[in-house]
């Protein structure tokens, strides 16, 4: 697959422009409802599918199928990421109107980290073919672990990253609008929103470690690996606001995701020494597993309405009052002009 520099540049510019549009559209803090989230989810999925059609028409059916297989895997695994975000926001009692700013920066960080991991993975595969065995074994182990822990959920209070952050970084106990850093009493302080952002980024890195080897199982093309990741990740914010209140209904999704990881791990092992499973088969298997797990989940929980995760009775942080916000000093101090000195004549 021969990809020229201008194609890479065009894709990166498009991603940057869409991120800028999204940020501008949500520049004012507000609660994103289901309708708005559904609209944005449709937009992001449409872009992802449209790009896959362009790949199919331009570079052929095989590469088009590889893109769609990778996109479907990444999009499916991203749902688990969304549920972890919901747990984090619920634990920290983050007001809904502040959540988009955290997720926007979280997605930007996810794109950067995934780009780094993809580049590193491609270099490793190109120079050390045996690393495919490591990737395959890792996918099989991750799938098995996810299957065993399918009823367990992340506990933000036990996060090492959070404990380290709170130990090293001075922090307020209140949310100050959408600010990540404030100055009070002449001291720079992180707000709880910055701690939440750090935790979101850490979870993004953990999920990237799982998902990047998975997509390398269906395609060796770095361009397809990156674009499938990028278009799947770009829709994560909208997906969160669409699905966050439906976590309790996806009871079999984690089982489906575990089976997907096991499948791609087996596919990678077979690809190394035995035979290549056609991309069409891989795409069909992944789509079937995800569709069946979602259908069984919704069927088992039919009649249940949307419900947000419960917040702690005594949340660790609260929203600052107007008086507390008024006491804040400018974060970036301007240097005051020195007083004039009288020179004797």
Automatic annotation (TrEMBL):
<keyword id="KW-0812">Transmembrane</keyword>
<feature type="transmembrane region" description="Helical">
    <location>
        <begin position="276"/>
        <end position="298"/>
    </location>
</feature>
<keyword id="KW-0472">Membrane</keyword>
<feature type="transmembrane region" description="Helical">
    <location>
        <begin position="250"/>
        <end position="270"/>
    </location>
</feature>
<dbReference type="InterPro" id="IPR022369">
    <property type="entry name" value="Integral_membrane_TerC_rswitch"/>
</dbReference>
<feature type="transmembrane region" description="Helical">
    <location>
        <begin position="187"/>
        <end position="216"/>
    </location>
</feature>
<feature type="transmembrane region" description="Helical">
    <location>
        <begin position="37"/>
        <end position="57"/>
    </location>
</feature>
<feature type="transmembrane region" description="Helical">
    <location>
        <begin position="102"/>
        <end position="124"/>
    </location>
</feature>
<keyword id="KW-1133">Transmembrane helix</keyword>
<dbReference type="Pfam" id="PF03741">
    <property type="entry name" value="TerC"/>
</dbReference>
<feature type="transmembrane region" description="Helical">
    <location>
        <begin position="6"/>
        <end position="25"/>
    </location>
</feature>
<protein>
    <submittedName>
        <fullName>Tellurium resistance protein TerC</fullName>
    </submittedName>
</protein>
<feature type="transmembrane region" description="Helical">
    <location>
        <begin position="130"/>
        <end position="147"/>
    </location>
</feature>
<feature type="transmembrane region" description="Helical">
    <location>
        <begin position="77"/>
        <end position="95"/>
    </location>
</feature>
<dbReference type="GO" id="GO:0016020">
    <property type="term" value="C:membrane"/>
</dbReference>
<feature type="transmembrane region" description="Helical">
    <location>
        <begin position="222"/>
        <end position="243"/>
    </location>
</feature>
<dbReference type="InterPro" id="IPR005496">
    <property type="entry name" value="Integral_membrane_TerC"/>
</dbReference>
<comment type="similarity">
    <text>Belongs to the TerC family.</text>
</comment>
């Amino acid at each position: 697959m021969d990809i020229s520099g201008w194609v890479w540049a065009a894709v990166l510019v498009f991603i940057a422009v869409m991120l800028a549009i999204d940020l501008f559209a949500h520049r004012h803090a507000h609660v994103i409802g289901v309708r708005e989230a559904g609209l944005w989810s449709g937009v992001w999925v449409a872009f992802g599918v449209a790009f896959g059609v362009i790949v199919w028409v331009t570079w052929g059916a095989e590469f088009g199928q590889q893109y769609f297989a990778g996109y479907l895997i990444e999009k499916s695994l991203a749902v688990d990421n969304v549920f972890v975000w919901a747990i984090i926001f619920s634990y920290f009692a983050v007001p809904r109107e502040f959540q988009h700013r955290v997720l926007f920066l979280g997605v930007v960080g996810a794109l950067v980290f995934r780009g780094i991991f993809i580049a590193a993975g491609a270099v490793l595969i190109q120079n050390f073919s045996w690393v495919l065995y490591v990737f395959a074994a890792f996918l099989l182990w991750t799938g098995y672990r996810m299957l065993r822990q399918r009823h367990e959920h992340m506990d933000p209070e036990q996060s090492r990253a959070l404990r380290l952050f709170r130990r090293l970084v001075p922090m307020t106990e209140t949310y100050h609008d959408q600010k990540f850093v404030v100055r009070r009493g002449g001291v720079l302080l992180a707000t709880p929103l910055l701690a939440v952002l750090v935790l979101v980024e850490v979870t993004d890195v953990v999920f990237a470690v799982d998902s990047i080897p998975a997509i390398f199982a269906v395609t060796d093309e770095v361009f397809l690996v990156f674009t499938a990741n990028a278009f799947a990740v770009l829709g994560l914010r909208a997906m969160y606001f669409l699905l966050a209140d439906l976590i309790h209904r996806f009871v079999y999704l984690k089982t489906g995701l575990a089976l997907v990881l096991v499948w791609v791990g087996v596919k990678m092992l077979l690809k190394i020494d035995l035979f290549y499973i056609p991309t069409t088969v891989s795409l069909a298997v992944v789509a079937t597993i995800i569709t069946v797990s979602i259908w069984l989940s919704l069927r088992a929980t039919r009649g249940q309405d949307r419900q947000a995760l419960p917040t702690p009775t005594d949340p660790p942080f609260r929203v600052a009052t107007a008086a507390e916000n008024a006491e804040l000093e400018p974060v970036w101090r301007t240097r005051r002009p020195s007083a004039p000195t009288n020179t004797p004549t």
